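Deliverable D4.2, example record:
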Amino acid sequence: MLLTLIRRYSKPYSPQILAVIIFQLASTIATLYLPSLNAKIIDQGVSKGDTDYIWQTGALMLAVAFGQVLTAVAAVYFGSRVAMSMGRDLRRDVFRKVSSFSAKDVNAFGAPTLITRGTNDVQQVQMLMLMGLNFMVSTPIMCVGGIIMALQEDLSLSWLVWVSVPLLVAVVGYLVVRLMPLFRSMQKKIDAINGVLREQIIGIRVVRAFVREPYEVKRFGAANKDLTEVSVKIGNLFVLMFPAIGMILHLSTAAVLWFGGERVDSGEMEVGALTAFLQYLLQILIAVMMGTFMAMMIPRASVCADRIGEVLDVEPSIHNPDAPVAPAEKKGRVEFRDVTFRYPGAEEPVLSNISFSAEPGQTLAIIGSTGSGKTTLVSLLPRLYDVASGDVLLDGVPVTELDRDEITSRVATVPQKPYLFSGTIEHNLRFGKTEASDEELWDALETAQAKDFVQEKSAGLNRRIAQGGTNVSGGQRQRLCIARALVTQPKVYLFDDSFSALDVATDARLRRALKEKTRDATVIIVAQRVSTIADADQILVLDNGRIVDRGTHEELLETSPTYQEIVESQLSAEEVA
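Output generated by the structure prediction step:
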């Protein structure tokens, strides 16, 4: 998968990669040429006292060194641009893929691992590309070229090359094989610690309400300890790697000086040739060491690439139809025909044989006990999930045959858990309709009973909102989410228990304002409070995923035992009537 990702994302940058190869090649050739010039200065200039030769060759060495620096800088510059651009493209595609996931797909992976795969995993692949473009060309050329140049200086000492290089490769190879499973485990531990940290941050109020800080500290400590243990094992291998490489380098240097010194003493070798041979051997070993850094990164990057590939290769369970149907009408008529739905892995369906219709200008309410399937039911219309059997129709067309943009342009949802994005109130209200005017925003706020508290602050629409809306109260958050839905002016409104944080008086004012604002639209309300849905045109009573009763508030008070139980649990039937 690592090679597949590299091939796929490096293709657009082939000219820049070619430039990297050319500059790396020029830099490496210059580096290999310098020890030979140095040897000539020692053997021909110094030994013979030829000052002119020293100046001429020295000037050439300076020119070659200057060219080597320039080409090395150019190679790093282009290599960095390519690596960062590829990382950007990979993050973009991971984000787009995750954005196309249905709720089912997101749940299959889990939010923590998707976050890790889109950030840390991509970064590891990006860093491998950066190191690869910087060392990929120079390392093999330096190694092979160094061997050739060293053999030209003195063939008798070549056995030192054939001993030291394979020994270094063997040591590095052993450590890389040990590192691969540890890096795979490390990424899973990062997923786990991200999951614990995310839960603790999101649920901080619950944790504090139940005084569970010590327990959460222990839970995080356990996840942190697991990650630390794996990291220590990896660190131990790195601790072995660098001394081993250093020892091989120093032993090789000592061996060259020992055996080369004997050859110089016997007159079989010049001092300059010995110096050049030593430099070439060090260049060879340094090239192998650079390859070692690459090899150390490959196992982790390979694991990360596999995890990224798992995300990119997933076919979203919900996707646009190949030939979307355009409804003849755009009124907002909703119909469920014998709909059954079950979550993946569930033994029993959450919804069974659900059938009803809601007309424009009508308000349909859904009520039932906790776990009866109310939220699941309203999630099927905007196609957050696909039904197991039956049809969900919008303006007479099954939602599976509609373009998703077509659905979202007609259906606005206010979720059970109101969520606001970091930014301003204006930014949040324009989330579904970017071209909305300020008048439309204030009108939506007035209908949602949010105008007063927005006007209280001098910033008004420019008031800052923290991520998730944590700097406003629950009731204010709900009203802002309702206003956001109103700004889009859809044909269908889905209110999923969106009034639970409002007091009775605000709830009543809001419902009166909504009735006027949504008189031409289809309104579907999921509620726990009977007072919220008492004036609905039709009420569906859900129990264990089935519609057990339906009718108006007055009809259900007389005919539905389940509805009567719900009413009596809140207030007496006479008060509601």
